[in-house]
Specification:
Shape of chain B: globular
CATH class of the largest domain in chain A: Mainly Alpha
Distance between the termini of chain B: 27 Å
Structural class of chain B: alpha+beta
Largest sheet of chain B: 5 strands, antiparallel
CATH class of the largest domain in chain B: Alpha Beta
Strand content of chain A: 5-15%
Distance between the termini of chain A: 42 Å
Order of helices and strands of chain B: HHEHEEHEEHEHEH
Radius of gyration of chain B: 19 Å
Radius of gyration of chain A: 21 Å
CATH architecture of the largest domain in chain B: 2-Layer Sandwich
Number of helices of chain B: 7
Oligomer: heterodimer
Strand content of chain B: 15-25%
Helix content of chain B: 25-40%
CATH topology of the largest domain in chain A: Poly(a)-polymerase, middle domain
Number of strands of chain A: 7
Largest sheet of chain A: 5 strands, mixed
Strand order of the largest sheet of chain A: 1-2-5-4-3
CATH topology of the largest domain in chain B: Alpha-Beta Plaits
Number of domains of chain A: 2
Number of domains of chain B: 2
CATH architecture of the largest domain in chain A: Orthogonal Bundle
Chain lengths: 347, 321
Amino acid sequence: MSERIYGVTPPISTALPTEEEKRLNNELHQELRAQGTFESPAETEKRKEVLRQLEKITNVFVQRAAAEKEPKNTILIRDAVGRVFTYGSYRLGVYGPGSDMDTLVVAPKYVSVDQYFRIFPQVLVEMAPPAAITDLTPVPEAFVPIIKFEFSGISIDLIFCSIQTLKQLPDDKNWSLADNNLLRGLSENEVRSLNGTRVTDDILNLVPEPATFKLALRAIKLWAQRKAIYANIMGYPGGVAWAMLVARVCQLYPKATSAVVVNRFFHIMLKWPWPLPVLLKDIEYGCPVTRVAVWNPKVSFLLVPADADVSPQSRSMPVTEITGCPSSHRPTRPCAPLTMWAGHRWP
Amino acid sequence: MAVIKEELEKGVQVTEDIMRGRRPWKDLFTKHTFFTSGFRYYLTVIASSRTKKDQNIWSGFIESRVRLLVNKLEMHPSIALARPFNKGYDREHRCKNNAQFEEVVSLGSLAYLYKPPAEEAKTEPKQEVKTEIKQENGVSVKEERPEVKGEDGMPIKRERSEETQLPPANDIKPESTDNDGVNVKLEDIPEKRDEDEEMAIYTTNHYIGLQLVEGAKSLDLSREVNDWKAMCTNNELYKEGSMFLSIQHVKNTALPDDVFEPGETRPRPAKKSLKRVASEDPGNRQTQPPAKRQVQGKAPPAAQQQQQQQQPASTAAAAAG
């Protein structure tokens, strides 16, 4: 039987783990626990509960927005729903105690950003348990407009996008944002808002064994943080870039344990002929649907407009993604994250 | 980027040993030595504002520009490696008068740190947004001339800070021992303030480790620093009189306490630190071997005042012998 090939080349090795490698993998897992990178099941349960509440809140928000836009349209109002997606470390399954939750609210076309900043905070405070919401900070002028708050002590970064092609969102639980048609009619900023989720979903779909990937990424993240080489804004790779690099190694060793992936990661990245980009899949040239560059899962270190104009509030944004597009599609604004290492000479 | 490549190399070695059962995984996750032994010389970028709100905007903006300063620094012929620390340090201060204010915003003094009553006195690297201010007590970081022997090593305590603040110089050469660093324009300084009214100041420091090329005699970074500062203050976000920007040189022995974690040893003046310079950042880029020179002794004390405030921009300098 032929197995799916993940990535742009066949794997380097499809060897199954040896007993020794399994043992080392166990030890890696133990060490990551000992280092405190995992949170308790109770904390994780709390995150899930918060997400469930955000889903309810989002539906009410969308209904109110609908009622405001078309007060007579009772059917529209009745069926109005929004969707909540996550991206970033939570979505990738590599969050730890105190990690922020990067979250995206998706709404039908008639909901405006203005309504998001006006109505959503009200509904949030009304519907959340008393005193659960603290530090509520809308940042409408950010590169990716965002509402920040703490919900029962969990720090949430909530961004927003309304889909111009949909008057109602599908009911399907498995509905994802992968379809490029959803980008139709969106501004660059809006595409950027969707990109966080699209990128993370994409990465998870492009690795052969998500559990292996997650543990390996946890190790690489901890390593990069300890070595102070983790921070996109300072020119180091950030969360998404490290994730893509680890994902590529997972593709090359589809059957390997996380321990082996971590070891191979260092070898491969050290020998990588930078600035040749690391690709997770073939590049989609020119998005037919929008003038805006679509995201391509690739990491390269050359692309940077050195004067990329990154606005301050964009610091924690999911700006990772737009790159690798033909120059005519290149965004005029900051290609933030993937543009890391701009101007640095890779030996 | 040399730094990353070097870490990857170490990662190869460590994980090879781990895979052979010779070392534990723990060894892969040891902490960086950026402050403890990474460098002898650092620049610190001090972004500050009078209000927390302004500081959120200003420090975020400056943070996004540090990379550009690093790029400029790396093009300087005397610099082998400029490595930015990946996180900024947020601090809050209360000053009683303009002189103190200036120490904080332009010289980076930590003599007037303010601890909100509820908070633990602790500075941590900031985590993205919602940074509460944290702080630490007092060692003031101010620049010391690298070469001045006697002073190294000993963090300047708050009591001393007032008188030790020296004027800035723009181009510091080792031999001449000027004081480095420089500061704010006069107009940045608050004008009328009651002596007893406390002024709040919020600062965010970014640290850049500098490794000089072998044989570098002097380091005049005024052009790089001034160009960069001008670029920052020309941005529309900049509010003159409320937001400030300064760049100072900090020797390894004069780093503030709060960049060290409990259990870490700070660099000592003596030869120990000389050795360590080489250790973490050989930065084998086009240039040469790790810079390792002894700076001591050559510089006359002094530092004083020369061109104080003639220069809006600060300059930093490090020297090498």
